[in-house]
Amino acid sequence: MSANLPIPAEFAEIATICIASEMMIGNSLVLGVDGRALHAGLQVGTKMATWADRRIKSLGLERGIDFEVFPKSGKNPNGGRPEDDYIFSLDAAKHIAMVEKNERGKLVRGYFLWCEKKAFSAQPSVSVAEIERRMMQALGGMMKGIVNKQITPKIEQLSQKVDGVLAVRPAGVAVTSSRTARGWLQHYGVVKRKRGMSQRVSSALKSLSFRMGYVVSQTAEEGKLCFHEVVANAYFGVGAGRHLLPKTVKDQKEMGLEPAPSPFHQTPA
């Protein structure tokens, strides 16, 4: 059907009164009609506001979906407060015309049906290829949502686990001894510890373990992080940890009297 169809002769008169056009109802742009124009087209004898309120109530129309009301400013020529302005969606207007139960109502409803068909025919045709493209695009969006919602969190959980526990150690390097950050502090004679020191040292040893390529393990009971002896030696011997050592221990290390702490019993990798 052509979008430029001439108005049928039977609707020629009503088309000059009940003009259907795009209107905002709620948050949607829809085909609608002005309430006063509809009232005039249906040739209703009842007062506009009274008639509109009755039809809205009897048909169960919803504001923001089927109609909108706008307070009218200025004076009412017939006296009293100014009447409100109404706009109705074309669907609501068809129902209103139908319940008039007279020839005028049938005519108005027929005209609105013709307006809908004309508006529909004006929509651009969509090729099969375009429909397939849109379907694939929608499917891609659905798959992306599934990945973001279900798969990505699992990957992040695994990454956190690898980050926190399962760092890879160099091939052929056996785990000789490991302790928690607090254990290494005690081993190096740091008895007096400020609040939070163990946690800061643990974070530093963890970062250094990853850079050096040594495994970070956990205690079985409490799940606390344990660090390789080589990493601890590097941190407390030449790294930032040496400034935490008591002066007597630091002097011994500088003089070469204690090159390394006594190793633990070696265990296989």
UniProtKB/TrEMBL annotation:
InterPro entries, alphabetized: AntA/B_antirep
Top-rank taxon: Bacteria
Domain AntA/AntB antirepressor: 33-102
Protein's UniProt name: AntA/AntB antirepressor domain-containing protein
Organism, scientific name: Acetobacter pasteurianus subsp. pasteurianus
